[in-house]
Design a protein that fits this description.
Length: 381
């Protein structure tokens, strides 16, 4: 107890004696010398914490310190068994640190589950709220216009947080999120308004670092025929037209398989049909240009009509099914007006991406050929 009060007295005098430096630190912040301020303040705090621990008679032993990376950010989770946690962690790492309590972590998105955490990380990687000029989303992407593109972090920062990829075009940034983009967008908007994401019971899944250059999914092997009867599932053409590989789609997010492997069809027909028995898992209701399906074998399929057709706001699109509907192969899903798409200046190519294709290494695709909706096999699992 005596040692504890001795630490309190020491900290009181430390704060009192260093108070005259605060205006200088504030001046450095305003004149672009924040790094200098941080460096000096860190050394002062580190020295004072070491003195506090010595006065308390604390012997610090760290197991596994060699596993802590020397570069990059690190997240430490403490059980707060003692008020000395902050002192011990600061002294043990000897690097700049920030601390958050449980309530503050809610604002960081963890209490809102994986999607809320992604939203927080994406917002930080995009340069923070002040760097966001406009945000919208399509079926799979968070589309953001930023004020300063130089403040946007590297692609690996986004993929480490769960994004499939990043597309940069000047001030226009596209974060490839996947079919969960509506939820991520909701949390993103809440954070932009300074609101706390809604808590959910889900937990944050572990993410693994993915190099920015690595495609999200390996290429599936093309085959001359899909007549093998021992395959678990066959997908048939989802619209009539000319079948091409997804790598031929003139859009980086699809051609680089950020959303998964798949195929595309240059349409001659105007009706999207279910490629197999499935459940309608997602409908882009504001634009009707995309629909998600969950197949009976667990495959998650995105059918995306045209490129940038989200900007048409549903004009020229007619929904022929509904959310959570159980559909059979060949059932109509969406009708689209090819002339309206052409008039709006957009490409009407229709893409089918298996967003979890990495879970199906046996997936094979038919080579380029003319196809008939609901009849011609195009993919087998």
């Amino acid at each position: 107890m005596i040692r504890f009060f001795a630490d309190i007295i020491y900290l009181f005098f430390f704060l009192t004696l260093t108070a005259p430096l605060y205006p200088l630190f504030d001046h450095w912040n305003k004149t672009g010398k924040a790094h200098k301020r941080s460096s000096i303040a860190q050394r002062m705090i580190l020295r004072s914490f070491k003195i506090c621990l010595a006065m308390a008679g604390t012997k610090l032993i760290v197991d596994g310190q060699e596993n802590i990376p020397e570069d990059g950010a690190v997240l430490y989770v403490g059980n707060h068994s003692s008020y000395y946690d902050i002192l011990c962690s600061y002294v043990a790492t000897e690097r700049g640190m920030g601390f958050f309590a449980k309530k503050e972590m809610e604002k960081k998105g963890i209490a809102g589950g994986a999607d809320a955490l992604k939203a927080q990380v994406f917002l930080d990687c995009l340069g923070g709220p002040d760097n966001i000029r406009e945000v919208t989303n399509c079926a799979t992407r968070l589309r953001v216009t930023v004020n300063d593109p130089d403040k946007v972090a590297a692609t690996s920062k986004f993929t480490n947080a769960g994004a499939f990829g990043l597309v940069k075009n000047g001030h226009a940034i596209q974060v490839i999120v996947g079919l969960s983009v509506p939820n991520v967008r909701g949390h993103f908007d809440a954070l932009m308004k300074g609101e706390m994401p809604a808590a959910v019971e889900s937990t944050v899944p572990e993410t693994k670092e993915v190099p920015a250059e690595t495609p999200a999914a390996p290429a599936a092997e093309s085959v001359a025929s899909v007549d093998e009867d021992d395959r678990s599932m066959k997908l048939k053409a989802f619209v009539s037209g000319d079948l091409v590989d997804i790598s031929e789609v003139p859009d980086d997010a699809f051609s680089q398989k950020m959303m998964g492997d798949g195929v595309a069809i240059k349409p001659s027909g105007d009706t999207i049909v279910a490629p197999a028995d499935a459940t309608v898992s997602m409908i882009m209701e504001s634009s009707l240009h995309a629909i998600g399906l969950e197949l009976s074998n667990g495959a998650e399929v995105l059918i995306h009509i045209g490129l940038d057709t989200v900007n048409m706001n549903g004009d020229g699109f007619t929904l022929l099914t509904q959310q959570d509907a159980q559909v059979k192969a060949g059932d109509p899903l969406i009708r689209f007006d090819r002339d309206a798409i052409a008039k709006a200046g957009y490409n009407d190519i229709v893409i089918m991406a298996v967003t979890n294709s990495t879970e199906y290494p046996q997936m094979k695709k038919e080579p380029d050929q003319p196809v008939v909706a609901g009849e011609t096999p195009i993919v087998i699992f």
